[in-house]
Amino acid sequence: MKIALAQINPTIGFFEQNQSKILKMINQAKKQACDLVIFSEMVLTGYPPRDVLEKQEFIDSQPLMSLIQNVHGIGVICGYVESSGDHLFNSAVLFENGQMIHKSRKQLLPVYDVFDEQRYFQPGDTNDIIAYKGHQLGLTICEDIWNDMDFFGKRIYQADPVKELIQKGADFMINISASPFHLGKGVLKMKMIQSLSQKYAVPFVYVNQVGGNDSLIFDGSSVVIDQAGNIVAQARDFEEDFITYDTKTNQGVCHPISDCDEETVLKALVLGTRDYVHKCGFQKAIIGLSGGIDSALTTAIAVKALGKRNVRTVYMPSLYTSSENDIDTKQLAENLGVDREIVPIDMMFDQFLQNLPNDFNRDNHGLAEQNLQARIRGTILMAFSNKYNALVLTTGNKSELAVGYCTLYGDMNGALAVISDLPKTMVYAISRYINKDQEIIPQSIIEKAPSAELKPDQKDQDDLPEYERLDIILKAYIEDHKSIDQIVEMGFNQSLVLDIIQRIYRNEYKRQQAPPGLKVTSKAFGYGRRYPIAHQSIL
Amino acid sequence: MKIALAQINPTIGFFEQNQSKILKMINQAKKQACDLVIFSEMVLTGYPPRDVLEKQEFIDSQPLMSLIQNVHGIGVICGYVESSGDHLFNSAVLFENGQMIHKSRKQLLPVYDVFDEQRYFQPGDTNDIIAYKGHQLGLTICEDIWNDMDFFGKRIYQADPVKELIQKGADFMINISASPFHLGKGVLKMKMIQSLSQKYAVPFVYVNQVGGNDSLIFDGSSVVIDQAGNIVAQARDFEEDFITYDTKTNQGVCHPISDCDEETVLKALVLGTRDYVHKCGFQKAIIGLSGGIDSALTTAIAVKALGKRNVRTVYMPSLYTSSENDIDTKQLAENLGVDREIVPIDMMFDQFLQNLPNDFNRDNHGLAEQNLQARIRGTILMAFSNKYNALVLTTGNKSELAVGYCTLYGDMNGALAVISDLPKTMVYAISRYINKDQEIIPQSIIEKAPSAELKPDQKDQDDLPEYERLDIILKAYIEDHKSIDQIVEMGFNQSLVLDIIQRIYRNEYKRQQAPPGLKVTSKAFGYGRRYPIAHQSIL
Lengths: 539, 539
What we know:
Two copies of one chain form a homodimer.
Chain A: E1 2-7, H1 15-31, E2 36-38, H2 56-60, H3 64-70, E3 75-84, E4 87-96, E5 99-105, H4 117-120, E6 130-132, E7 135-141, H5 149-152, H6 161-167, E8 172-177, H7 185-200, E9 204-208, E10 210-213, E11 216-219, E12 223-225, E13 231-234, E14 241-246, E15 251-252, H8 261-279, E16 284-289, H9 293-306, E17 311-315, H10 324-336, E18 339-342, H11 346-355, H12 367-388, E19 390-394, H13 398-403, E20 416-417, H14 424-434, H15 443-447, H16 460-463, H17 467-479, H18 484-489, H19 494-506, H20 508-511
Parallel strand pairs in A: 1-2, 2-3, 7-8, 8-9, 16-17, 16-19, 17-18, 19-20
Antiparallel strand pairs in A: 1-14, 3-4, 4-5, 6-7, 9-12, 10-11, 12-13, 14-15
Helix pairs in contact in A: 8-9, 8-14, 9-14, 11-12
């Protein structure tokens, strides 16, 4: 049996385009004499549609019947939303020559982190195996394979759909997924699938969605792993792809994927940025350049995602801006081939101060005066956005967003927060990676001490611990769910740890008004992390 | 048996204060010779703590053991978070004289609208009845009683905890809740409990949380309904209360609650505003006054919530501002006894236009120029906020927010959106209600045609249908989940309906960056309505 893995990038609710992508890959599979072509989870709707699932028109718009009736000469597996009685199921269908041959329903419905599947779907009962072209196929959906006691040492769910199908006689496992990327998950996933293949001595075909949908990035990286645990077919990461695998010869097409964290994250952010801008119906982006590393990296990513002609930068110096930032941003813009507008903000700052009560003044350098400058800049960027039909990309990193070192309605203004899930230390690492062959981000930008430049001689490290230490504490608390005591045991001063964690809680209000940020770690700010604002911190 | 219903307003994670409120009401119950005092769901932590539940320190901080060990001479029922093995349960405990006598676990865990309970909790298995002071008590938690086939005509969940307890011999039902308010829910809830009382011929004691937590408002309105369906004890709505009921005499204390929608919504918004500001650690609020009805109503609510000395208003006229707005806002401020600062924005507007590229100019009246004015105002309000340690309250209503008739980082700036779940028609109704005894909101504000005043002679109805029609369509689509066809059948032009629904989808990006808004309808924007931004609308 020759199988095609069809890794497409659907847009949520864009049924026509999704269908045409599906048909294109079906035809490609037929041309290559495949017996079966496999698409990802909920490929008809795109994943995740979230509460649009509550609209019956949305469910009814899926072109499943049209596909079933019009495709002949090949078996097709694809994911869709099944409406049955009052309930929805996250289902997969195998159809061929106008007939629906089999249907599997997702049994394990995740509700952690970014997932809300029990909000929408009923879990399926146990599924049957499929006798197809001499094989006994076991068809599962995403989470269904993430519950192996031997691999994880514990279980979230009682059912084990993989084991059930094996016990029913499956000799070939298929999993269709829409599994959001985060750093480290790819390796874990491969190990898990390899472990399942070897444990049950069956090959595994895994077809994953690719593309960005709001803050989630799907990496594709569809794969076939044989019963010995070898990767025998591999689709590209972070782009659409089509590969084949032949069960008789155990031979498949292997495309390269990244094995370097910096490259992986960079690909993820480029894809996430491109898809967000394009799927929102835009082509162009606006970025405020400060002369610092965050806006430099964001611009470099935007240029890769959208093309240099679609990226416009704005440099907005004030009295507190170091003169080298002019040189550095000019050089950056030149290196990237993007326009740089200059809009000094001092006259607007003065005008605000003149019109506000006497409590406000330049020499005050208080929080109000500092934020005012950031908000003038944010307002300028939004003026460009409105005038030139371009989305503003924000430039804040995760370390800042965690402790609130950012101005709401100022530098937080924008449609997408490109690097808001990158700790500052990762911002440096990715920037150096971008420069590996030639200097794209001027070295002076990488080397200068980070500063908000909202008052004289201000440096981030006046208010914050060094980012190397801050990022370790933040990861321990946010991503690794360590307790305060455990973090202190890692070698940090208790008052420092308490101060940082209190800042995290205190700044929840800012994050709840932040634009969607591209998720690249196991726990990003955004809808995967749901905190109250009005509460007493646990400290 | 004499029972006390203890309706307190807990703050999430403020264990010390919650405990002291609990102890105070326990003592009050003892003084009144009660046998049993009943508190609401998760009263130790406050509801909903959301992802803070993932922190073990939070779970461990609950003062349950301290309460159990220190309270003597009375039975106490209270809700808490039970940690057992790897799982959490939303549980209720009955303790007396140092002993835990009984524990019930919540069986039905809602995951619709604002609820995420399956994200955190495991459902409990069937619960036992409690033999206590000659009664057989059936103890349930919130959602457990919302699944009666006879009353609703359908079931969300398979289990029916009420029926189970009755079958086990319960002769007295207790439900502890943290049930968020929305208009119409109170009446539905009373009917449902009355129906259960009558169906099973048992009395029902219902103790509900009171208070605001971010966008959710809990109305209290705890009640005892006897087996004939009569209300025999009633606690106040929207404030803390303590009432008693005697099973022997079937007599209880009845406090008045509102039966008028306008009064109910007003009480809800006042409580929600007060609690948000105070629970965030603030006392003061800033509101931008335009001369329109939205900002007038918001200010009136803020004054009721915080006191006139804690409310400061800012009037920010431009060239496009009608002169009567000066008179009207002055009168409003006088009527309410609040300060009114005047900060004209024209000089700042001019300064921006001078510093921006030539594409920007005053005579353009384009979206960029219009939004620029709103953002200057938003920046001024935030400057006041930062300088005077006061939260900005935003003034946008639900109709505007639905169709995007508002400026992100402009009039949407603020910590809390007080009336963002009020359709414009309801804004008028509440405003007239506030004026019922004397003119608080000047009649001219109520009568003038709504306008954003961002360009000459602009009126809302240039861009939008009349609010009377718009609000019907919005409610049908957002709250009542009607299809496009169904709305057209209600008598609206199809192109109008499509245009409005497309606007709803297109403006999702603004709402995702909006501040929390107080929920008063069955479907508010916010985390109870989760939509993707980058997607193709279903139209």
